[in-house]
Amino acid sequence: MLPDLSEFLRIREQQGLKRRRTVLESPQSVRIIIDKCEYLSFCSNDYLGLANHPELIQAACLGAQQYGVGAGASHLISGHSEAHHLLEDKLAQFIGFSSALLFSTGYMANMGVITALVGRNGAIFADKLNHASLNDAAILSRARLIRYPHLDMTVLEQRLAKSGAKRKLVVTDAVFSMDGDCVPVEQLISICEQYDAMLLLDDAHGFGVLGDKGRGILFSSAVKNTHAPHVIYMATLGKAAGVFGAFVAAENDVIETLIQTAKSYVYTTACPPLLAHILLKSLERIANDEWRRERLNQHIRLLKERLRTLKWPLLPSDTPIQPILIGDTQEVMHVSRALKKKGLLVPAIRPPTVPQGTARLRISLSAAHQEADILRLVDELHQISNDQ
Ligand SMILES: *Cc1c(COP(=O)(O)O)cnc(C)c1O
């Protein structure tokens, strides 16, 4: 008896909003196989090309031999292995925080941090374009949720000044997942300091990509004071790091509080220790392979320059996320399908993932792309837009 669902699904279909999964028949990479055909992909968050790296695959095999395949228990019971522990130390050291804590996914990390740090008497200040996991966590925390217009520091400051909440937490994507733009990190940190608010920075798309050695948004410019006690840094390990998982880095007291009370940490099985073992290798590649970031940045510059005359605008972004704003949902689907016919995969992003009227193609670039791949995408986009 599911009376409402078929109607719901029919309407989704009619509006061109029904989502379908494609089945990948190859490892994640810039050249992937679907339905036995090879495509050039601009779809993954594997920004550094590590998801299918031979050294990481070898680490996976060795990790399985050393630790088995499952953690078998939560971290607080008996699932916390030396591989997890070592990875946490290395991550904290790498980005200059006193402690770090591993979570199984970024979604769970955001759930855990936000609900552990603010409750009914607290207030959460959130950018309107934040990732769904931050919004869900805010609702679950039962704190007052105050959303401010995208990147509007003036409004944020006004809302903070007016708030009488006991605990205040500002939460934001560091690199916005559907837009590719970045927070003004230094300004944000000082505003939070001034109004006695904690700051949760979700750097899912910045870690590995931005900053000296890929250490993320906090190392992206001549930022000072980035490791102030009110800053809580979160990043995922399934994107540029190429594997799976997430971590939170902060002051000892924050991390210790999460270990005590973050439900998505306490009441779940630890991720397989072999993943932590692979991630130690991934961290080495992130830190040492500066050429991956250089190549990625060359691709970003080339794409932006060559698409300047396209009839649809690129959104302002200097990151590997390069969205082309098309607006209309059906039109964006049409362009995405036309690209697929030519062997190129670029996803169409539609409401409700993005606001109504802002449907877009979301190009994700990778260090694993060749210059010729970027030029091929540019050519096909110009041709399709001229045919419209
Ligand atoms: C992908 C993403 C997450 C979720 O991370 P997972 O590890 O995939 O669960 C959280 N925040 C942002 C901004 C993301 O892009």
Question: Topology of this structure?
Answer:
Blueprint: H1 5-14, E1 31-34, E2 37-41, H2 54-67, H3 75-79, H4 82-95, E3 99-103, H5 106-117, E4 123-127, H6 132-141, E5 144-148, H7 153-162, E6 168-173, H8 185-194, E7 198-202, E8 231-236, E9 246-250, H9 252-261, H10 263-266, H11 273-288, H12 290-306, E10 321-327, H13 329-341, E11 344-345, E12 348-349, E13 359-364, H14 371-387
Bound molecules: pyridoxal-5'-phosphate.
Pyridoxal-5'-phosphate (PLP) binds at residues 105-107, 110, 131, 133, 173, 177, 202, 204-205, 236, 238, 246.
Q: Could you write a compact summary of the structure shown?
A:
The protein is of the alpha/beta class. It is built from 14 helices and 13 strands.
What does this structure look like?
It is a single chain. The chain is α/β, with parallel strands linked by helices and 388 residues long. It has two domains: 24-48 and 290-387, Aspartate Aminotransferase, domain 1; 54-288, 3-Layer(aba) Sandwich (Aspartate Aminotransferase, domain 2). The chain has 14 helices and 13 strands. It has helices spanning 5-14, 54-67, 75-79, 82-95, 106-117, 132-141, 153-162, 185-194, 252-261, 263-266, 273-288, 290-306, 329-341, 371-387; strands spanning 31-34, 37-41, 99-103, 123-127, 144-148, 168-173, 198-202, 231-236, 246-250, 321-327, 344-345, 348-349, 359-364. The strands form three sheets. Strands 3-9-8-7-6-4-5 form a seven-stranded mixed beta sheet, with helices on both faces. Strands 1-2-11 form a three-stranded mixed beta sheet. Helix 4 packs parallel to helix 11 and helix 12 runs parallel beside helix 14 (371-387). The radius of gyration is 21 Å and the shape is globular. Pyridoxal-5'-phosphate (PLP) is lined by residues 105-107, 110, 131, 133, 173, 177, 202, 204-205, 236, 238, 246.
